[in-house]
Amino acid sequence: MVEIRSSSDELKALKDKMEEYRDNGCRLGWLIDRIGKQVFIYRRNGSIEIKEGSTVTLSGEDVLPDLTMQVNL
Question: Residue limits of the Putative restriction endonuclease domain (predicted)?
Fold first, then answer.
């Protein structure tokens, strides 16, 4: 699942939505916040990793093992 924050989105509402996706079985989710220059990585095990910077590299991990991409924030 990928969510991209727009200027009209509240970050808390998007984080809540990502938690809901995970609670419903989503194995990997990326919340891309270009405003805050962060990417929140939601995993099935309940962990949330935060990557920061102007360029972030994302991996599909075990869900999409051949996927790697760079996101310019």
Answer: 1-71
Show Cβ contacts of residue 35 under 8 Å, excluding neighbours closer than 6 positions.
Answer: 5, 7, 11
Q: How does strand 2-4 pair with strand 28-33?
A: parallel
Structure tokens at 30: 């990326």
The span from the CA of 36 to the CA of 26, in Å, is 24
**Is pTM beyond 0.85 here?**
yes
**CA-CA distance, 64 to 52, in Å (whole number)?**
22
CATH class, 2-72 region: alpha beta
**Averaged in consecutive runs of 10 residues, what is the pLDDT profile of the chain (73 residues)?**
96 98 97 97 97 96 96 95
